[in-house]
Write a structure and sequence with these properties.
The chain is of the alpha/beta class. The chain contains 14 helices and nine strands.
Length: 351
């Protein structure tokens, strides 16, 4: 018989500083990935080039920067060349495997290193203070930032300073994003007023473009239609008799998310295998929509199957949201939730 896991809307995870630092590592989905397990799409040569660049970058972590290899080719050789950036930045659309590559880099490096989402690092600063965060992370050889994005001016100033000071301390940096570093913040706040900070961020990275299609849905059928509210819970119990199933009303979960900091969502979705979402509705408010983006990422990280009723996930966000400043985040969320729903209702592996 399936076991009833505590609904997400009744969970209030609390995190200490030690737990925040301990949590800075790849999630369950990416715990054992490697460069060898990444399969480049032959139709998009930039994917193979990204693997090569990251392998070379990995070899430079913990060693003094030389003039050859990837960085030498990118910035030239000899005393006149510009000093190479401390980091590598994977820019590309959702579903091209950037997180897989970033986690592979993390696993390829020995010694102290950190892997976390953008929001986890900003929360670490809030818990430790900026100076203490710099002191702690300066002892690391590599800091990986997944889903790098700037949603407000405060984050821009904070991350600009943090990246600069870590680079000055000799820490190698690696990041993924759907947006080129020089374009961070566009369409979200008055980014033109923070060009100095954005340029400082951009200067820390060599940009590697990763092109391609969303591998989660490449050649696959459309997602199954949502179940009815009356059958969704029984369907999950019958299909997953040994699973830990959390059942949540969509409205109650959304209300609960507004009171839980996104940095705690990783702990919010622990100790469960399947999430039953009843009566999914289109999200109208931007703040809630962005929180749901983080929740979807954490569900995907932990490979939690989703069985849902109500609106299909391609109607989770308004048309305005899907074409606005955060459109890349929302499209990624729809892609990931659709993969989890396909896994939940059809028994497939969520790619």
């Amino acid at each position: 018989m399936p076991s009833n896991a505590t609904p997400l809307s009744q969970r209030t995870p609390q995190l200490g500083v030690g737990q925040l630092l301990e949590g800075l590592k790849p999630s369950f989905r990416f715990a054992e990935v490697s460069f060898d397990s990444y399969i480049p799409d032959p139709a998009h040569p930039s994917q193979e080039k990204a693997v090569t660049a990251l392998r070379e970058f990995s070899a430079s972590v913990g060693a003094s920067q030389g003039g050859g290899g990837f960085f030498g080719k990118l910035f030239g050789r000899g005393p006149a060349r510009a000093q190479a950036p401390a980091g590598i930045y994977l820019d590309g659309g959702f579903g091209v495997g950037k997180t897989h590559l970033l986690a592979s880099l993390y696993h390829s490096v020995e010694g102290q290193r950190a892997f976390g989402t953008f929001v986890e690092y900003t929360n670490l600063v809030g818990a430790l203070s900026f100076r203490r965060t710099v002191d702690v992370l300066s002892d690391y050889s590599l800091v990986c930032i997944d889903e790098f994005e700037l949603d407000d001016p405060g984050d821009t100033v904070l991350m600009s300073r943090l990246m600069r000071e870590l680079a000055d301390a000799g820490v190698k940096l690696a990041a993924t994003s759907n947006t080129l570093p020089g374009s961070l913040g566009e369409g979200r706040f008055a980014a033109a007023d923070f060009q100095r900070e954005i340029q400082v961020l951009s200067d820390q990275f060599a940009v590697i473009k990763v092109d391609g299609e969303d591998y989660r849905h490449r050649g696959l059928p459309e997602a199954p239609a949502p179940l009815s509210s009356a059958e969704v819970e029984g369907f999950a119990a019958e299909k997953y008799p040994e699973a830990r199933i959390a059942v949540d009303d969509f409205g109650a979960l959304c209300e609960h998310l507004s009171g839980v900091h996104p940095s705690r969502y990783r702990q919010l979705v622990t100790d469960m295998d399947v999430l039953v979402l009843k009566d999914v509705e289109t999200i109208e408010g931007q703040a809630l929509a962005l929180r749901f983006v983080v929740l979807a990422d954490r569900l995907y990280d932990q490979d939690i199957k989703v069985v849902a009723s109500g609106k299909p996930f391609d109607e989770l966000f308004t048309e305005e949201m899907m074409t606005g400043g955060y459109m890349k985040k929302y499209h990624r969320t729809v892609s990931r939730l659709t993969a989890l729903a396909r896994a939940g209702q059809m028994g497939e592996t969520a790619l």
